[in-house]
């Protein structure tokens, strides 16, 4: 089980958050595929460079990690990519 968080501070953008091709569940799946053994603990919808991303936190090897998952393409970036 993991927590899904929506960034409530929308003052940074004027566009409302809309459904994305990659939802939180799919973002978590992509992270566990990319990092076998990962346990996703949180997925937060945010924006980077004007585009929607999921900030996904996960436990792996006794440590906490975080990567970004593009909410449109599913590409993983940041962290150990």
Using the CA coordinates, give the radius of gyration: 12 Å
Physical arrangement of strands within the biggest beta sheet: 1-2-3-4-5
Helix count, per DSSP?
1
**Portion in helices:** 10-25%
Just give the CATH class. Answer: Alpha Beta
Cα distance spanning the termini: 24 Å
* Level-2 CATH architecture: Roll
Biggest beta sheet summary: 5 strands, mixed
Structural class: mainly beta
Overall shape: it is globular
Low-confidence stretches: none
Mean pLDDT, rounded to whole units?
Answer: 84
Domain count: the total is: 1
Tally the beta strands. Answer: 5
Measured by DSSP, the beta-strand proportion falls in 35-45%
Q: Can you walk me through this structure?
A:
- The chain has about 80 residues and is mainly beta.
- It has one domain (about 5-75): Nuclear Transport Factor 2, Chain: A (Roll).
- The chain contains 1 helix and 5 strands, in the order E-H-E-E-E-E.
- The protein has one helix at about 25-35; strands at about 5, 40-50, 50-60, 65-70, 75.
- A 5-stranded mixed β-sheet has the order 1-2-3-4-5, with helices on one face.
- The longest helix is centred in the middle third of the chain and has 11 residues, at about 25-35.
- About 20% of the residues are buried.
- The model has no long low-confidence stretch (mean pLDDT about 85).
């Amino acid at each position: 089980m993991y927590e899904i968080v929506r960034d409530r501070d929308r003052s940074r953008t004027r566009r409302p958050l809309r459904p994305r091709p990659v939802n939180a569940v799919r973002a978590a799946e992509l992270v566990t595929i990319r990092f076998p053994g990962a346990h996703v603990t949180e997925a937060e919808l945010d924006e980077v460079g004007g585009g929607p991303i999921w900030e996904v936190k996960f436990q792996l090897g006794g440590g906490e990690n975080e990567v970004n998952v593009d909410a449109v393409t599913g590409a993983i970036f940041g962290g150990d990519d």
